[in-house]
């Protein structure tokens, strides 16, 4: 789950702190190494990675306080989320 959380935090961080799901999906497709299984359609024709993204946002990042819901399908990076991203980014670059 960590890989998805960090990727989503990074996308929001570089999107002036706010983005909708379509922008997040596009950034994931452009910038992150999605597996073939991530791109496969699931039961409702959405890609598996789209379901994982939505689930990670609502069940993990919003509940932890790293993201805040703005409107339908739109999220904002909180100060806590910004701090977490900076801390984890530093861990990646220093380790």
Give a short synopsis of this structure.
The protein is of the alpha+beta class and 95 residues long.
Q: Could you explain how this protein is built, in words?
A:
With 95 residues, the chain is of the alpha+beta class. It has one domain (2-94): Winged helix-like DNA-binding domain superfamily/Winged helix DNA-binding domain (Arc Repressor Mutant, subunit A, Orthogonal Bundle). Helices cover 63% and strands 13% of the residues. The protein contains 5 helices and 3 strands, in the order αβαααββα. Strands 1-3-2 form a 3-stranded antiparallel sheet. A hairpin with a 2-residue loop joins strand 2 (67-71) and strand 3. Helix 1 (2-13) packs across helix 5 (79-94). The two termini are 20 Å apart.
What is the strand arrangement across the widest sheet? Answer: 1-3-2
Order of helices and strands: HEHHHEEH
Give the CATH level 1 class.
Mainly Alpha
What's the CATH H-level homologous superfamily? Answer: Winged helix-like DNA-binding domain superfamily/Winged helix DNA-binding domain
Beta-strand segment tally: 3
Termini separation: 20 Å
Q: Please give the CATH architecture.
A: Orthogonal Bundle
Low-confidence stretches: none
């Amino acid at each position: 789950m960590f890989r998805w959380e960090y990727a989503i935090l990074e996308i929001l961080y570089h999107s002036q702190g706010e983005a909708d799901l379509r922008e997040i999906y596009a950034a994931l497709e452009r910038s992150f190494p999605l597996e073939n299984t991530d791109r496969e359609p699931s039961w409702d024709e959405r890609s598996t990675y789209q379901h994982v993204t939505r689930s990670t946002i609502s069940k993990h990042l919003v509940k932890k306080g790293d993201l805040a819901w703005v409107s339908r399908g739109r999220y904002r990076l909180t100060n806590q989320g910004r701090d977490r991203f900076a801390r984890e980014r530093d861990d990646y670059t220093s380790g």
